[in-house]
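Lab notebook, page 48
Experiment: co-folding of the full assembly
Goal: obtain a model of how the components sit together before planning crosslinking
Operator: M.T.
Materials (sequences as entered):
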Amino acid sequence: MKYSIAYSIAVAAAVVMAAPCVNAQAKKPAAVQQQKFMDSKIYNEKMNAINRDFGKKPAEACAELLKFGTEKNLSEQQKNQIISRYAYYAVRANTKELIADTIKRVDALNNYAAKVQLAMDLLRIRNTPYKAEADKFIADTVAGYEKDPQKELGTLVSLINGLASLRDTHATACSIYDQFAGQLPENNKINLLPHIAGKALSEVGDAKLADKYGDVLIAITLARKNAAAAEEAKDKKNMQIIRAYGEANRRLLQLLEGYLSMSTELGQSFFAKAKAALTDHQNTVFELGSVVAKEAKKGNMAPYQAIKAKVLAMPYNGTRDQIINILSRSLPTGEGNILLESQLKDPSLDGKGRFNRLNALRGRCGNVNRFQRGFNNPTAYPKWRAFTDQMLSAFESNDVNFYTKNADTAYNYGDFAFAEQQVAKALSINPARCVDTAVMIYLHKKDTKKVSEIIAAEIKDKEAVKTRHWRMVDYFNKGGKCKGFDKAFAADKLTSPEKLNGLRNVSEIMFRATRFDVCQEIYDYIQKEMFISLASPEHTATFVKDAPKTADGFARTKMYNEWDKMATQFRPYGDNPAISANTDAKRFLKDADHPKCDPAWKTGIRVLYDVQGVHIFVRCNDPAIMEVVEGKRTGGSLECTFRPNPDAPYNMWFFSRLPSNYDGVDLDFASPSPRYKLTKDNFLTDAALTGEGIVAHTYIPWFAFYNDLPTGDKVWYLGLQRYCKGGMQTISGQVHELARMLKIRFNFTPELEKEIKLSLCRTAFNKFKNNGTISTWANDDVLGDPEFYKQELKPVIDELNEAGKLLDDPKADVDMLFREYAPRWAEFNYTIDAKRKDYLKRSFFLKK
Amino acid sequence: MNKLSLLLALAIFGGVSANAADAARRQVYKLAPAAVKANAAKVAKDLQKVAPEWKKAPALYYTVDAMSDIKRVPDLYPEDGKLAAPVEIIGAKGEIEPGSFLIYPQKNVDKFELKVSDLKGKGGTIPASAVDLKLVKIWYQCGSGWFGFMNDPLQKTLTPELLVNDENLIWVDTEGIQNYARYNNADGSTHYEWISADFQVSNYRFSNLVRIAMLKDADTLQPVVLNKGEFKQFMATVRIPKDAKDGIYEGSIDMIADGKKIGTIPVQVGVLPFELPMARTNYNIEKPFMLSFYGTGGAQHYPSILKNLVDHNALHIQGFPDVNPANEAKFAAEVKLAKEMGVATRPLFSGPGVGRAFYGTMGPKEKAELAEIQARLNAAAAMCKKYLGHSDFYSYGADEGGPWTIRAERPTWRAAHAAGSKVRVSTHDHKRLLYALDYMVLPRMPSEERSGYVKKFHEAHPDGMVGWYADPHSGPENPDYFRRIHGLMAYKADYDVASNYTWYRNDWNDFAIAYEPNYRGIIIVYAVSDRILDTLAWEGIREGIDDVRYASKLRLLAAEAEKSGDADTILLGKRALGYVAYWDVRGNPDTFRMECINYIMQLINALKKEQK
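Observation: model returned without errors.
Model output:
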């Protein structure tokens, strides 16, 4: 694994890093340069897939990213994004090797934006050891700006912004800003100032510093306000001046909200200075809306109670609207609704206004999403529907999304006629914006013709790659089958992952349309035709008359080296079924490049058995076993599961810190009863170091599963995962995935079966005889119960004792004893319990 | 595909109207022919021991242990069952106690009904309405069903789980090996939807997840179908009135097949002469032993759900009453509601979050934030004191935080202590690092071995509490298993709280779990549109806490006996304590319960004699 990552990094690096240079040299005429770049959808899908992988396997994701960077049809922007993403991953993974590699790559680039990003990423590492490298990138960027201010202005702005956001570099940000303030365009200043001022307060805690930059922003905004006011008074207005005020005003407001988010007091004190630069409307909204909402969120309802009447008495205008919107989001539902409902009483409200206000209330009537994770609110849909009806009467909207969402919600609640009515309206406004909902609804109706019409309109005049999904849907809509799919879509030249994704996207919409027959067909087809077999591997156990009883004993036999007789079908952990599309594509598609375990960390299972029980040996190779011997690390762990038949409860045990047999998990997944025995009561484990690694051993006496012997065609089941420095390996899928446990076959001869059964009968009988409670029940009239003993236990004990005599008779029917008596001897404790319970119950009802 | 499945397939897939789909549907399970034959032979043998009129009855019944670990599938003969025996239930005043029986049809019945009578005794009448009859619905769960909580989607196993009134709420297709749910549409129609499709079907979107708003169960047990040779389990759960007089109450459940009475199931309820106390801990009889599940958020909006929690001994509901100083009116209303419903209001597992971890040096922004947290906690404490007279509420830290997160939470946890409130969180045993934690929710089964961690925490936190969650998460349906690990096992390992994850979220589709697809459904109950459905596991948990309540009653009486001054009474108390102390968790909890009752009755009588 390591080899392949290193290799792909090396190969990919050369190509990606060379790319800017090649492009810089390419000076072909524009017409010739018309290169077809990778479709952004495909690019984004790939980047997203890599991103998903990154969480689990950072190094592999980085390698994959660099490999992707070698694609020929990437645009320059995409290549830069890939490098930036690579740098971001390297820092997030915080792996020295990757960070060094990315620093080298970015340093070599003539791309200051990438340098700024990496500098900031490096500085964000806690106790960063890369300060010098980051400082160099900062210095490079400043120098780059000085060299070509026009080109690198944006880069300098992002540098200042980035540096201002960190406590340790805020001062640097201020100094760079101060150095270039005279050159910076005012629009850039108003972008930077709220950030520098805000962070001066929140990160550095320097109110004076915050004031310095905040005051500059207020001054600029006030100047612009005055200019805009003058402009407003003119007949012919310069809209640029008015817009410039709008921009500064927005930034100032942003800073003010930032102060308020820290504390009401800070917000109010900054407001006192800034209000002159804001509009009257904004001042009222801040005082009656934002400040009051902030206090309400903290639980201080007094300010709200003080202004409630005032707000309700305000004239119906935009200021009142905005205040109520802000307050309703922070107040308890009931109070919020009072305010919103008051808005409906506006006498001047037109249809559209009423529609909008009903919409605000509709959004608060409960969760009407298709998937609800919590409890359902039974009144939500009826309320939603009532509001929707009112909205429809109030105003005829031409918003296609409104009707489409209505149709979706109504459909999900089985309000089918209304859903169809709403989707018809959506189709009449803009068919392209409601295709998915419309197709779903008409697929549900089985209106094949209508579905085809909608799809035909949608795909008309579009590139084949962009119409693929809808063509596939229509194929199945018209009765197409998976069998003919390849032929029908041959021209699309689909890769296996594309085909898998395409078929499943069809399945998804078919599911919503309740066309489960199509979903099932697609599902079966994928499992049978496209996926590898997920059947359990098998292993045949070996009878050894005197099997080794310990891991060390096994390691000293020749069997230790008989890999060909071991179950070795281990694969890297992570092939969980039905867990993610990415896993399906990478682990289950027949033509995927299936990952393999590192052979240096080979694992093998050998199962031996004798008359007393079963010995499971797990050989775990470790190429650096001396690290374990000398205590640098443990030898990893094993997670083991076992069940004797496909319906039985399963036992589970851990070797938590090999080569110790310590089980730090200690779990059972069933309660002790005649049907389940606790793992700790029956399973014995040990482990041993060898020259090549570790052997772990588990002994399971037949007696633990006397009622489930693997006779005839029966098999036993073993699950095993190994977690070690060489990676996580599994022979049985996900942990506790019972469907893919290793099947262990035993080949009992009739003689051996008889011998085992006879031994089990003796063990069971001895367990019965050694039951320590019988004499107490019989003879202790204080702690026992002689009457109970006489009535309930003695007859059974006599019978079981009598049967026990047959164990010494060589002519005894062993099968009969095993079938009839072994369970009764073995489970006599439970017999006492059951009889005692019934006895006490009966006594209770009789006494009364 | 048999004719029936074909009809259904036509109904579901072939465009037949929803009503026609209903008419065509009949719940039939595929039975193993060999099992059917063997079962018939066993039943024939059993019939020799009962009244001859049962021989020709269209259906027989077996009483069985309600909370058994036996996974009762339709072709499993009940080895523990008793043919034609009475359903016997013993409980304390105010207790809710289950009984159970299986119906064994000797021929097909289209409409099988059960009708319960009033229960009469010398002490008066327990009305029929106090007996809740439910069908145990068997459906497909993933391969680890009944046992595990990890996903195992490549196989489906028939698993008894849901307690329903309407058999047709879920339709199990044993030919296609899938579950379907009946959806009640807003337009008044109904239709069935596939609810066991895994995420591959929806390409990992949530379209395949169950829409709970569409599910409706009936208010009372509806008629069911009986298919020859197919066992069907029912629960008969009695809510013993608090004011019932002790003694035996007798009644019956009539078996009615296609309108004709075909037999009677006698019911005997023994009411004990005492009420059960709240559960107490094993290590300190003064301290409560609590059941407080994760995943009860939102329950406060539905009185029926709150009542269900209380009925199952889950008195400490996480997040309720909501100690949120931003909404005092809501808190006041919730305190009132909690008191009305019998929900515990001390301690409260609720309060402003204290999971804010301040990594590194705190700057002005962080200090301002901490001040706000402190102000919020102070306000919460003041509010709590105002309405409840205490500030014994436990705010939650950062879930499963590692050592550095715990270190970074120190200022926040300090704020809770400064406000006079407390901190709880799920965490591994990080030993001294947890010095500021008041309630540790420790992962994994509360085994005897794990009690060492519990003991150490109690040693380091004399007023502290330890709960457990996970490994197993909720999921296993086996009621006996969940009864033990939430009840006596946790109790005997000296835990204070059984706090498993999770009680409810929409995990209806066992093969596709939103956000955590590596798990199967890790829930205890299932929500439908307007209520929750009980399950075998949930009934098991209630019984588990009741086991602890019986043990607590016994120990309280033993403590009284100790003070009696009478040597025999004192020694009786000691014998009783010894029974509880040395009871092995491998034993049968039903037997434990009966022995406790036996000792409690002896102690009550001895103490009465003393008083005389």
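Interpretation: Chain B has a mean pLDDT of 94.
Next step: discuss with group before ordering constructs.
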